Each structure stands twice: as C-alpha cells, then as structure tokens.
C-alpha cells in the first residue's frame, strides 16, 4: 500500500511539474521525475508478483498439510 501511495504522489508531482513547465518533456526535472515514476511502478509490480507467488505457495502448503 505504501508503494502505491508513493506512485500516486509521484504522478501528481509529475503532472503538476509538466503543467507548470508548459509540457516541456525535455526539462531535466520532468525527465528525472518520469524515470523515478517508472522505477517505482516496476518495483511495485515486482513486489506485487512476489506477494502473489508467496501467497500461492502458502495456499498450496495449507492444502497439502490439510490433505496429509
């Protein structure tokens, strides 16, 4: 959840900066925020996949131990 809030905060900041700078996508601040947002999104999706994998493994272990 914390990562999702960081991503949303970064999106808001990036949008505000782009509007303030009149949509200059070559501005170093815009580029920096855009890259940081991309990095956060990738990290968020990797973490979410890891949680899903761990949850699936845990679910399988519960089923297996219930059967035994």
Automatic annotation (TrEMBL):
<dbReference type="Pfam" id="PF09388">
    <property type="entry name" value="SpoOE-like"/>
</dbReference>
<dbReference type="InterPro" id="IPR018540">
    <property type="entry name" value="Spo0E-like"/>
</dbReference>
<protein>
    <recommendedName>
        <fullName>Spo0E like sporulation regulatory protein</fullName>
    </recommendedName>
</protein>
<dbReference type="GO" id="GO:0043937">
    <property type="term" value="P:regulation of sporulation"/>
</dbReference>
<dbReference type="GO" id="GO:0046983">
    <property type="term" value="F:protein dimerization activity"/>
</dbReference>
<dbReference type="InterPro" id="IPR037208">
    <property type="entry name" value="Spo0E-like_sf"/>
</dbReference>
<dbReference type="InterPro" id="IPR036638">
    <property type="entry name" value="HLH_DNA-bd_sf"/>
</dbReference>
